């Protein structure tokens, strides 16, 4: 049962990004042990000049827990970057599991390969270098994926999601990251290619009988954003 928190006659204090980040760090200190391999992946990515746009610690743990919860054996990731989220997901796989991750940048892929090797996941995780949509089109649909995580260029969201529906099994899960964007997606006064990419996906999902989906908004050390969670019907 939900509890209502009374603040008397005082209005609740407005929270900031610093508050959200502090909350993440606080909860993580109880629930997510320090991990030298993941820390090294972030350090190596930064040292090679990769943008600091990987998922947060708690988001990575969520992806891992979810992959475990649905007993995923085949995972597809669209957007590798330095392999940080790939490590979280790869660790969720059973011994005979497989993860394919798609990355357009050969530089990013090289860094990710180093990080996956350091994590002991090279045998389970395969990086395909090239444009994400073209790589997805080339993947056969006979052997379905259990879980697909889309975290790549937002203008291509609809193309990625369309292919994801082809590649995912019935009952499988598709997550699309970065779809709230500080609430700007819902603000008609705001527009840029990333926002429009999310809006196009939302329009495509409206009335789509192939999936059942919702948006989950999040706050934390990565600020105010969110993801679409969809199940293939």
UniProtKB/TrEMBL annotation:
Tree of life domain: Eukaryota
Pfam families: Methyltransf_3
Keywords carried by this UniProt record: Methyltransferase, S-adenosyl-L-methionine, Transferase
Entry keyword Oxidoreductase: no
PROSITE patterns in alphabetical order: SAM_OMT_I
CDD domains with a match to the protein in the record: AdoMet_MTases
Family recorded in the similarity comment: Belongs to the class I-like SAM-binding methyltransferase superfamily. Cation-dependent O-methyltransferase family.
Protein name: O-methyltransferase family 3 protein
Organism, as annotated: Lentinula lateritia
């Amino acid at each position: 049962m939900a509890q209502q928190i009374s603040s008397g006659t005082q209005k609740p204090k407005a929270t900031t990004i610093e508050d959200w980040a502090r909350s993440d760090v606080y909860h993580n200190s109880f629930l997510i042990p320090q991990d030298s391999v993941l820390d090294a992946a972030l350090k190596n990515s930064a040292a090679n000049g990769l943008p600091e746009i990987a998922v947060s610690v708690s988001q990575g743990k969520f992806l891992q827990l979810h992959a475990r919860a649905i007993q995923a054996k085949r995972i597809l990731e669209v957007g590798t970057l330095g392999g940080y989220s790939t490590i979280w997901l790869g660790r969720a796989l059973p011994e005979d599991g497989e993860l394919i991750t798609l990355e357009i940048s050969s530089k990013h892929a090289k860094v990710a390969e180093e990080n996956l090797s350091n994590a002991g996941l090279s045998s389970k995780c395969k990086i395909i270098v090239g444009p994400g949509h073209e790589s997805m089109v080339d993947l056969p649909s006979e052997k379905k994926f259990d879980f697909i995580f889309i975290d790549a260029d937002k203008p291509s969201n609809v193309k990625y999601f369309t292919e994801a529906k082809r590649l995912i099994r019935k009952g499988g899960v598709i997550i699309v990251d970065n779809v709230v964007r500080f609430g700007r997606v819902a603000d008609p006064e705001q527009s840029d290619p990333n926002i429009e990419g999310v809006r196009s996906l939302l329009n495509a999902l409206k009335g789509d009988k192939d999936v059942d989906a919702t948006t989950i908004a999040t706050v934390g050390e990565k600020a105010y954003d969110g993801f679409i969670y969809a199940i293939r019907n």
